[in-house]
Amino acid sequence: MKVFIHFAILATFAATVQTAALAGDKGGRIPLAQASQTTTNRTLLNINELAAWIHSNGLSARHPSGNSGLFFPRGSNPSTAVVFQDQLIWGGQVSDGQEPVLRVGGGQYAVGHVPGKILSPGIPEDRTDPNINRVWRIRRDFTTADLALDAAEVNSILPQAVSQDQIDDIRATYRQDWIDWPADRGASFYDADGDGQYNPDFDEDGVPKLAPRSGEPFDPAVHADEPGFADADQVVWLVVNDLEPRSLENFSGSPSIGMEMQITLWGYAGEGALNRTIFRRHRLIYKGTEMTPPSASIDSFYVAQWSDPDAGAAGDDLVEAVGKVLKTQISHSNYHEK
Fold this sequence. Notes:
- The protein has one domain.
- The protein has 4 helices and 16 strands.
- It has helices at about 150-155, 165-180, 245-250, 320-335; strands spanning about 5-15, 40-45, 50-55, 70, 80-95, 100-105, 115, 120, 125, 135-140, 190, 225, 235-240, 260-265, 275-285, 295-310.
- The chain is globular.
């Protein structure tokens, strides 16, 4: 139809706030649930000191209860939330013969995209399919790792209340996501055998075979294709599109651009700043709507990361309070300068 325009960014979040309380409810409970017995349409990036919720429609840093959804340090009691919600926002001047020319997508408190790829201009995947309305999450050590805190966070309960069945469910989901890793849909993987296809494998104990490390020769007895990105300890992947008019109307009131967004989140379990960092990559692919001609283009395209941080509850937010003080000081200074 036309040449796709790819736009990718890398965003990092490093938590430095040491004390916070769960932010107040700014929205209702999010009506999402387990997609099937071993898959999910919401999960957490929680390999280090941070824990951040991500949903299949791209909603980020929002707890399923509707409250704040990015925590630092994770596992604290009471919970310490530092972000209520965050989203990517994009916009540009779209030359496709339709009005208005200026269009905006992405999300803020409302989310302007829904799960799934764009199969062809204006035609999205069927998001009623659990394999479309889905988030994938992997970690190399899922067969041996202590997943009690992970299970507590996913189920929003205290670690001491976690059952063995809940831990087993988390482990089973990790395994299924390893097997089903959507490499054919855009998710990154390590192509150990070099055939361009994702071919995972497990040893006789059910432990996944990993790709050879740098300088290590490929041996099919011990190696296989591995899902992941940037040698991260945990990776989450999902894909959304802006072809749902009601979602986009609720967010920006803009018509669809025909944009697909593939989201990769990853983190490392280590020391120092990396242990307090979540990395994000957004791959934006302009595929168009049913009305988009082959000659269409987007000019002056801008991308911004939006976030609503909360250090404290919504009514006593330290971040907002500091901002108001700074604003008052600046205004007062400007008054005297005049």
